[in-house]
Amino acid sequence: MKKLFLNLNFQVIVAILLGVVVGLCFKSFGPTAQTISKMFISLITMLIAPIIFFTIVLGIAGMSDMKKVGRVGGKALLYFEIVSTFALVIGVIVANVVRPGDGFVNHTVADAAKLATYQKAAAEMHWVDFITHIIPSNVFDAFAKGDILQILFFAILFGFGLSKMGETGETVINLFDKLSKVFFNIMRTVMRLAPIGAFSGMAYTISTYGVKTLAPLGLLMASVYITMFLFIFVVLNIICRIYKFSLWEYLKFIKDEILLVLGTSSSETALPGMIDKMEKFGCSKSVVGLVIPTGYSFNLDGTTIYLSMAVIFLGQVFHVPLTLEQQVMLIGILMITSKGAAAVTGGGFIILTSTLAAIKIIPVEGVAILFGVDRFMSEARAITNMIGNGVATIVIAKSEGEFNAAVNAAALKGDG
Questions:
Q1: Residues 264-273: pLDDT tens digits?
Q2: Least confident residue range of 15-29, 64-78, 177-191, 216-230
Q3: Which residues on neighbouring strands pair with residue 283, listed in sequence order?
Q4: What CATH class is the domain 2-414?
Q5: 20 in Cβ contact with 202 (< 8 Å)
Q6: Which of 180, 216, 235, 299 is a Cys-bridge partner for 104, taking CB atoms 3.0 to 4.6 Å apart?
Q7: CB 386 within 8 A of CB 258
């Protein structure tokens, strides 16, 4: 029983239920709940810039191994981008067809003047402005303002420059790796406050918008789960068939890792096990060593599906219409910002916040609406991410002739 009370998922569930009750019975608590929710979101946003910077720099700097593996690295990155784009497109299509945000009653949402500002920004959002804005005129100013796109651009250049230093750059890489771990530890500590954030976010949502908001949030959750299910059993299954291996056998082989991720909401916890399992599955050590770790930063299929659907959902909630051109642009932005999504609990929420800050057409405070249910979509994101990375590893190994069919047959016979 004690373990149950200490479980973060259980705490979040209780907090959400309390938030619903408080929101219904004590509507005057709404402004206070909003303040608490904003404070929690601020705790997260203050960590966005450094986490994304270190994640991107370390990911690119670590690609020096690609020189040894040759075309494997380039092929892996190409695969990541193609499959991630499919994931994003599917998310955008489902969000536009189902339109879960339309049922959100928000007549009292924010003030009209502020909402009009966002709607104007959406109307004026164009490719040229987006591209010219990416390059910072002052790096320190980009960090000071928390401009994620500019930070990402600088991080890519910094990581590339660091990768060219060879052994002399190891000192900087080791330092950045330690600093990255410090910020991840801070994030894990902040996420222990998730029940407070969930309680305040739900209490504010219910007291301000009413209990009817639970229906569209539930519809969004159902849409995300169904979309990820379709992605795994349709898109990834097609890929598996093309490369002549069974998706079902693969899923059975990594069932322990799936259960681990289900319990922790983080695909990072299964990283050591996935490396071991992929080698036992028949993939060469060199391919596994490159594709699996790189995929944790560059192949987050579940996270990208969630991001695309969440942003469009909030656009529908705040009545900010997004044209087809702007949604294509949104996919482009998400393809960049999703690369900074840490494979830890809360990573998708971090990137959602940073993406809203980057596009500047949907109120960033809108993430408070989603926080209450975000935790329940994190398991689906993490599991989809992990399954997608394993499939990518097998595909690259097979395409490079570095897949041992005999080892695979023996592994499947013993079922892992």
A1: 555 665 666 7
A2: 64-78
A3: 403
A4: mainly alpha
A5: yes
A6: 216
A7: yes
